[in-house]
Structure formats: structure tokens, C-alpha cells
Design brief:
Chain B: One of its GO terms (cellular component) is cytosol. The complex is a heterodimer of chains A (694) and B (152). Chain A is mainly alpha-helical and 694 residues long. Chain A contains 33 helices and 5 strands. In chain A, helix 3 runs parallel beside helix 4. Classes of the chains: A mainly alpha (694), B mainly alpha (152). Chains A and B meet through helix 2 of A and helix 2, helix 3 and helix 4 of B.
């Protein structure tokens, strides 16, 4: 029960009967009644019996005799299930394959079952991520207990989230919000958000327990290794040198040549990296990715400012890896900030100082152009002067900036929304969607609006973002990184749009919008003493966000698209962090993404951002997984014309001022379920391919 | 009176099935799953089992007739049969399947043939037993009685 109480409300779907109540105290008596279980087994006899057994448990049962159709059901309605039970041996698809896909795409708990009770089979199930392995014949008693896996998974995710801001977070949050979409209760959504927030704060307190590698229990005993940007870059360089397929921890370690780093550290990082690439490959194909990256980076971008001193260091790093990639990787590998608010004076984790010499050989032509100047100005050697530790503690003051920026953005966006100041994310999205200049001018933003000219400074931001270094507590850290990708993207987008005139109807607007994004970061950067003012502001905002989060949700609720609203509102609740991180359900983000991506018409940004966003959009992709190309991850450099459909979508969104935000959201939302679907109407694999190949 | 007699007969027959190992406690579970919301549950499950098994047995027969025998394929069929027989609690079929699988593992064609015969026999036996049992159930129901719950 205690565990149950700890669960974020959003995790369990109140709408479908699972319904944990919003308050910690009362968990509905009926739980686990209503647990939504999908059973996959080609054995009709067994399926029939399981169906009845599960019904006897008062679960909400869906049976499916084919693994392939189960997969498509899950892809379309992944938030409609809490648990999957799958047979191992199925003619159309190996149960382990299904398990793997489900684990990667939906992150639902999966129970494997088979008449095959050989230890190696059970082991295989565990290795593939099964949360349980039932030997056939499955007994009623065993099924009565399976709800625990749902609880445990969510609980663990919460823990992971708190501790390391792991990739899982995004899923968790996404699911939470997804679930919310089936609920019409504003309270639920608010509540969950609030809870997440609270959890994060709690996490903050326990953050020295933070585990970088969630999936490696043993690592808890070892000193925490912080994968700073440089360190990660060295890692990536090593992997590139070896080739992703041949990269083994030992060789990578040798190439990296970082004292103190162990093979285990590298191994687990490699594992995450591979997972990341895998997922990214799927995500990159979906436009949704763009959205994510945009949102995430923006928030974090804020952080850049405080880190300005470190710019040089970051500069060194910037040229070598596409910023987006870095940001994405960082977000993914380094973990997102676990707390909504960053506390000053965070503890310094053990930091490995990477030797800065490694070959930086990531193929990003575009990058070089963009960031060429900054690099020139800042000798890479400079970076060595900076002590990562110092940076994190002194300069970061992440919370202030992070929150500050979002709020600013929100004000820029939809006026009505801006009043709520809380929802950075939502506002940001709205803002992004804005296609009219006037609105931008009308905004009551506390700071002067950034002009396009400012875009030129963006590279600077990027640099700073690189700074990565000392990984501060999960929170601050990540933020620093993300900004990077954002500003870059913004810059890129601006240029591409200006020079190439790729935009669709909303192009002009977009250009303006972007500067805004970049601007906050810039301002911070430019301010030598950014800590002082911005910080204070940011904090205030952050607090406000928490309070306002509820309002935000409520506001959206009235709208036709409650789920989207929830998503948007939810992230704000968490503070800036939420937006960048996984707070938003992938589906929601996905919805936004298409619009953004289309508007910008920058395929490249989509792909690149996809990386950054990847965290949130983990589920998004998997369409044509195989199609993905490694280069795209590292550097997709060309700006592409948006698919026509996308443009159309965008226009639709812009048609109505008032309802525009919601409309677009709605559109996105509607499409999100199809993300996994190869038949995605407006973004065919072919498009992606062409984009990426360029 | 007729009902009592049928019920007694049912209990005796069912008990013998458990005693002789045709059925095991899994079948009891299946019986217990039947309720007013699903009054034909056992019948439906048995019907599914019979359909499934006959399909698998004919595929098995085909696979075994092929030359050379694809033991992996045979094993896959046997595995499926084992799964469904285990699910319904047809113990002797399940046990025959276990032996069958070890013959497959050893690529033992002779053993496979023998086991196949055995599986087929056991299946035929349990099928007729189940049909008898279900027939008795229906008689009891028609006579207005309720099917006694069984303990194995």
C-alpha cells in the first residue's frame, strides 16, 4: 500500500477504472480491479482460459492471438494498457521480440509465459526485460498478483526519475499524461503534476543517492560517474572510431583513456547509448521529434546563461559534435534534471575529467559552418582552464534561469495562457505555434524581445551549453546541456528560413518566434552577472509555475483537447525541467512537433532535434526503425522543405486565433497515436529518408 | 432422482479421470472459472482444445512425414500442443509431449515416431473422456440439476 501511495496519480488511469485517487491517502479499494491487461497468445485454448482467469480477477482484459496485431494495437493505444502478458512461442513473432519492442516503445510491464520452463528461457525473458515469467499452465493464483508489476514498474520509474532523471522518466510522464487523456478530471492531471513536482523536490534532497545507471544495480556502490559533455564526446569519438557495431567497452575505454573511468562505466554508458541510437532511429523519422527537441531544449537553454563563463569550454566541444546530438545525448545519457527547481549549491558529483585531446571527428558539416566563429574565437585549449566542479556550483544557478526563460516564453505566447505564467511548456508550444508577428510584439515579456539579429549570438549559446562539464545534480546539469541544442536549432532554423525561404504559411512567424527562444539564453549569456538578476526572477517564476500549473490545466481542460492541455500544463508544473524532460507524454509532444517541424520546414532540425527530444518522444518513433541512419543522429545538416501535408496542418492550426493553440495541439494529439504507424499520413518514411540522406 | 444419479456418476467419472492422470488440477481451475456469466466456459475451452489439438496433430503428422524431418518444426508443434494440453489440464497428453520433445531434441526420428503415436493416443483418450464428461454435464443440466464441483 505504501508503494501504491507513492505512485504518481497520473500513472494509473483513473478513467479506466484503475484509478488511484489523487490523494495519497486513499487508494481506491477496487484496485487492482480494472487493470488493463493485454494478453497475447497464439494458443486459443490458453488464451480463452487466461481471458477468463483475468476477468475473474476483475481486470480489464483484451486478448490477441497474434503478436503482430498485438503490437499494432499497442502502438495505436499504448496508453490503454497497464500490462502485457505474452506467450513466448508464437508463429508470427517471437515473444521476446514483442517484449523487446514493447519495452522500447511503450515501456509497459510485460509478463512472459511459456510452457517452456527451462532456466535459460526464463533467463532470456528476464534479459529481454520481462517483469515476470509464468510457466504454463498459468494458475489463477499467479494472475491475481500480477498487478504488482504495474505498481512496481511505476514505482521504480518514479525512483529512477528522482534519482537520475533517466530515460524512463519520459515514458513515465508520458504515460501519466496519456492516461490523463482518458480522464476528464482536471484534478487528476493537476494532481499528478503536482505530485511529480513534489517527487522531484524530494528527489533533490536525496540526490546523492542518485544513480546514473538505473539499470545497473551494482553501480550504486561505485562512485558516480558523471558523463559530462566532454566525457561523453570522448566516448562518442571512441565509438565512432571503432564503429558502432564494433565498439566494445574495453576498446572504448582504451581509446578514451580517462583515468578513473572503468569498463563498467563505459559498458553501461554504451548500453544506454545504443538504446538511445536505436530509439532515436525510430524517432528521427517522425516529425514529432522536432517538437520535443524544441520544447526540451528551450527550457534548458535557459541554463546556458548562467554558464556563460564556461562558454569557452563548451566551445571546444561544440564543433566536434553536432549540438543537437550532444544535447540529445546529454539529455538521454546524462539524465534529466530530476528536480523541478534547481537548488543553488548543488552537490558536486564525482567528475571525471576527460582529456580533451581525443580526435573529434563527428561528421557535421553544417555544424561547422554555424559554429565556426565561436570555435575560432575560443581555442579549445581554453576549455581546460575551467574546472567543471566550480562551474556547476557557482555559475549554474540553474533553477533561476531555467524557469525564467520558460515564463518569458509563455508570456510571449498566447496572451490568455501567458497570464498563467506557469506552463512554460504549454506556452512555449503555443508560442511556437504563433504565426503572427503582432502577438509577439504584444507580449508582456519582461525582457526586450530578441531580434533576429540576436540569432547571430546563438552560436554562443550553443557553446555554453556544451559546457556540460561537471555534472551537477541531475537537474542543473542537464539543463546546461539542452540549451545548447535549442539555441542552435533556433539559429539554424532562422538561417535556413531566411536564406532559403522554405517556409510554408507560417514561416515568417516562425522566424520571429525562434529568436525569442534563443534570446533568453542569449541574454543570460551576455549578462556577466546573470546569476543575480535572472536567477531571482527565475525562481519566482518557478514557484509561480507550480501554483499555476493547476490553473493551466484547468484552462486547457475546457478546451476540446484535454489531453493535450494536460500535457502542456503538466510540464510547467514540474518547473522548466518538466518540459525539457520527459514530463510530457510523447504523444502530446508529438502532436506539437509536427506543427513545429512543418513550420520550420527543416527536416534537419527535426532529425537533430529528434535526438534531443528523443527522450520524451521515446515512443514516438519506431516507424521504420531500420531506416534510420547513423549520420542523422550525429549531424543532419540540410534544411528540408516540409512535407506539404505538414504545412497544411500548420495552416489549419493558425486559422483560428483563439483556438489555434488548442487546435494545433489537437491535431498533433490526434496523430500521436499513429506515430508508430508506418502509414503516418503526413510524414512518410520516404520523406524522412530523403531528408536524412541529405 | 435421475439428477442425483447423474451427479453421482459425474463425480465418479471425473474422479477417475483425475485419478488416472487424464486430467489434473488445471482442469479443476478451468471448471472453477465457469460461472453464471460464462456458463459454457468449460465446454468452450474443451472445444477449443480439441480443435487446436487436431490441427496441431495433423500438422505434426505432415511434418513427420517429410524427409528429412525438420525436428525444429516438429518440436514447435509439440511445444504448442504441450502448451494447450497443459492449459486445459490434459496431463497425459502433456506428459507425452514432454517425451516427444526430448526425442526431437535428440533428433531421434524413431523416438519421434513413437512419441507421436503416443501423443495421438493420449489425445484420443482424453478427448473421448472429456466428451463423456461434458455429455454428463449436459445431461445433468437438462435434468435440472447443477454440476457438482470437483476436487481433484
Amino acid at each position: 500500500m505504501a508503494a501504491m501511495q507513492k505512485l504518481g496519480v497520473a500513472n494509473l488511469n483513473a478513467g479506466s477504472g484503475l484509478g488511484l485517487s489523487k490523494t495519497d491517502e486513499d487508494v481506491p479499494d477496487q484496485f487492482p480491479a480494472g487493470l488493463r491487461v493485454l494478453v497475447v497468445d497464439d494458443d486459443m485454448t490458453c488464451l480463452k482460459i487466461l481471458d477468463q482467469m483475468l476477468r475473474k480477477c476483475d481486470y480489464n482484459v483484451t486478448v490477441c492471438p497474434r503478436a503482430t496485431s498485438a503490437l499494432s494495437i499497442l502502438r495505436e493505444r499504448k496508453s490503454s494498457f497497464d500490462l502485457v502478458i505474452s506467450d513466448v512461442h508464437m508463429p508470427d513473432m517471437d515473444g521476446f521480440k514483442l517484449l523487446e519492442l514493447v519495452g522500447l516503445e511503450m515501456d509497459l510491464p510485460v509478463i512472459m509465459m511459456s510452457a517452456d520452463k527451462r532456466t535459460e528461457m526464463v533467463m532470456k525473458g528476464i534479459k529481454h526485460g520481462a517483469c515476470d515469467y509464468l510457466i504454463k499452465p498459468v494458475r489463477f493464483e499467479e494472475l491475481k498478483n500480477i498487478w504488482q508489476h504495474v505498481v512496481r514498474k511505476k514505482w521504480n520509474e518514479n525512483k529512477d526519475h528522482e534519482q537520475s532523471g533517466s530515460v524512463e522518466d519520459s515514458d513515465k510522464h508520458r504515460r501519466g499524461t496519456d492516461d490523463a487523456e482518458y480522464t476528464s478530471s482536471v484534478n487528476d492531471a493537476n494532481d499528478s503534476n503536482w505530485k511529480s513536482q513534489k517527487k522531484k523536490r524530494d528527489a533533490k534532497e536525496e540526490e546523492d543517492d542518485g544513480e546514473l545507471e538505473n539499470d545497473d544495480p551494482s553501480s550504486s556502490k561505485k562512485p558516480r560517474v558523471v558523463w559530462s559533455v566532454e566525457l561523453h564526446q570522448q566516448f562518442v569519438n571512441a565509438v565512432n572510431q571503432l564503429g558502432i557495431d564494433k565498439a566494445v567497452p574495453k576498446r572504448i575505454l582504451e581509446l578514451m583513456n580517462v583515468p578513473g573511468l572503468t569498463r563498467e562505466n563505459v559498458a553501461s554508458h554504451l548500453q544506454k547509448f545504443r538504446l538511445y541510437l536505436k530509439r532515436l532511429s525510430g524517432v528521427a523519422q517522425h516529425q514529432g521529434a522536432l517538437h520535443n527537441s524544441m520544447c526540451g531544449p528551450v527550457d534548458s537553454g535557459t541554463k546556458v546563461g548562467p554558464l556563460s563563463r564556461l562558454d569557452i569550454q563548451s566551445l571546444a566541444a561544440s564543433g566536434q559534435i553536432p549540438p543537437q546530438t550532444l544535447a540529445a545525448l546529454h539529455a538521454e545519457l546524462l539524465g534529466r534534471p530530476s528536480t523541478g527547481m534547481v537548488l543553488p549549491g548543488l552537490e558536486q558529483p564525482v567528475i571525471l575529467q576527460p582529456s580533451l585531446q581525443g580526435p573529434k571527428c563527428i561528421p557535421v558539416d553544417h555544424r561547422e559552418v554555424t559554429f565556426g566563429k565561436p570555435l575560432m574565437k575560443c581555442p579549445s585549449g581554453m576549455s581546460k582552464h575551467f574546472q567543471p566542479a566550480g562551474i556547476a556550483v557557482e555559475d549554474m544557478s540553474p533553477s533561476g534561469f531555467g524557469s525564467w526563460v520558460p515564463s518569458h516564453l509563455s508570456s510571449v505566447g498566447n496572451p490568455s495562457i501567458s497570464g498563467l505564467s506557469g506552463p512554460q511548456n504549454g506556452n512555449m508550444l503555443v508560442q511556437m505555434l504563433q504565426q503572427q508577428q503582432q502577438q509577439q510584439q504584444q507580449q508582456p515579456s519582461p525582457l526586450p524581445l530578441p531580434s533576429l539579429v540576436e540569432a547571430s549570438h546563438l552560436p554562443m549559446n550553443v557553446q555554453s551549453s556544451c559546457l556540460v562539464s561537471p555534472s551537477p545534480p541531475p537537474t542543473g546539469f542537464q539543463i546546461g546541456n539542452n540549451p545548447f541544442s535549442i539555441s542552435q536549432n533556433a539559429a539554424v532554423l532562422l538561417r535556413s528560413q531566411l536564406s532559403k525561404g522554405l517556409q510554408a504559411g507560417g514561416a515568417a512567424t516562425i522566424c520571429q518566434t525562434h529568436p525569442v527562444y534563443g534570446a533568453p539564453a542569449m541574454d543570460h549569456m551576455l549578462l556577466p552577472h546573470s546569476n543575480t538578476l535572472p536567477l531571482g526572477v527565475g525562481q519566482v517564476v518557478a514557484e509561480g509555475d507550480l501554483k499555476n500549473a493547476v490553473m493551466q490545466s484547468g484552462y486547457f481542460h475546457g478546451s476540446p483537447v484535454p489531453p493535450a492541455a494536460v500535457a502542456a500544463g503538466a510540464s510547467p508544473c514540474d518547473g522548466w525541467r518538466g518540459s525539457a524532460l520527459s514530463m510530457n507524454p510523447a504523444s502530446r509532444l508529438a502532436g506539437f512537433v509536427p506543427n513545429l517541424g512543418d513550420a520550420h520546414g527543416s527536416a534537419r532540425s527535426t532529425a537533430a532535434l529528434g535526438g534531443a527530444a528523443e527522450l520524451q518522444g521515446r515512443n514516438l518513433g519506431f516507424v521504420g526503425k531500420d531506416t534510420c541512419i547513423i549520420p542523422s543522429r550525429f549531424a543532419v545538416d540540410d534544411v528540408e522543405t516540409p512535407p506539404p501535408e505538414a504545412l497544411n496542418q500548420n495552416k489549419v492550426g493558425g486559422a483560428d486565433d483563439t483556438g489555434r493553440a488548442q487546435q494545433e495541439i489537437h491535431l498533433g494529439f490526434m496523430e500521436s497515436p499513429k506515430v508508430g504507424n508506418p502509414g503516418l499520413p503526413h510524414f512518410s518514411p520516404g520523406d524522412v529518408m530523403s531528408v536524412l540522406s541529405k | 432422482m435421475e439428477v442425483r444419479r447423474l451427479q453421482r456418476q459425474y463425480v465418479e467419472f471425473a474422479s477417475s479421470l483425475f485419478r488416472e492422470g487424464f486430467l489434473d488440477e488445471q482442469f479443476s481451475q478451468v471448471q472453477q472459472l465457469q460461472d453464471e456469466t460464462n456458463p459454457d466456459f468449460v465446454y468452450e475451452v474443451v472445444t477449443l482444445f480439441i480443435q487446436d489439438s487436431e490441427r496441431l496433430l495433423s500438422e505434426l503428422a505432415r511434418s513427420i512425414d517429410e524427409q528429412p524431418v525438420d525436428f525444429v518444426k516438429v518440436d514447435a508443434h509439440v511445444h504448442q500442443l504441450k502448451g494447450s494440453s497443459a492449459s486445459i489440464g490434459a496431463r497425459r497428453v502433456k506428459n507425452a509431449c514432454l517425451a516427444f520433445r526430448s526425442s526431437c531434441d535428440g533428433n531421434n526420428f524413431e523416438g519421434c515416431l513413437r512419441c507421436f503415436q503416443q501423443v495421438r493416443n493420449e489425445y484420443s483418450l482424453v478427448k473421448s473422456k472429456l466428451e463423456s464428461l461434458l455429455g454428463l454435464e449436459q445431461q445433468i443440466m437438462r435434468a435440472g440439476g447443477s454440476v457438482p464441483t470437483l476436487k481433484c
